[in-house]
Amino acid sequence: MAAAQVPTYAHAIPSLSETIPTLPALGDLDINRAIAANAPIDRANLTNAKVVAKAMKATFESAVNPGVTEEMVETAELRLRAVEGAHTAAKYSPPGLMTGIAAILQRLDQIDQRLDTIDGRLDGIDQHLDGIDNRLHTVEDDVKLTKAITLNHRIIARNEESQPVCQPLYKTVEGSGHDRARELTSRADRRALNAPAVPPAIGTLPPNFENNITAYTTKDISQIISFYNQDFGITVDDSEPTRRTKLIKFLTRF
């Protein structure tokens, strides 16, 4: 005949001090009594929970209350109900029920741990995919740059024959040259220089490009500097004709 199973607590019940870290000192009242999961049912735990709940309520209603709040009293009473419920379930549930519940809870904990592991692996996969995306973007940028340089060689060859009427080159330097253009532009003309919301991409052409470079003003050239993020050798003291000449050299020489 199989030995009778000792009734146990299906789950842990923390002490009142663990549940309420801000609980004030209450003399000799045992507020540190915790109950471990699967520990044998002990009547002393139930007695302690009753004494603590009753003392908490009395202290709250006392004129010399050291800081016990109504919420603390409710927590002590809820803990008492939890202990009572554990004792009731252990003693009056069908044989094996509490063991089964404990096994289910343990199984759920194991599932949670496995899910955490899966989440960690998925995070690792996401990071790996991000790395692949970054490498693909780098390859794509390299392809765009190579294509732009190749096309520019052809355009420069044609511009040498047609200058000062020139076709625009494709952008090959990353980023915006807005700050560079401002440094080379007079204070009056800086007002017309608006920073782009998004820097122009490599392999693109400047918008509204005027092919006849002799028509360009200092302000126009500053816009071109901002787009290409190149100064074409222009200095702040250069005159407008000199700036046009240097822009033509940029468009017609390798």
TrEMBL record:
This is Uncharacterized protein. It comes from Gymnopilus junonius.
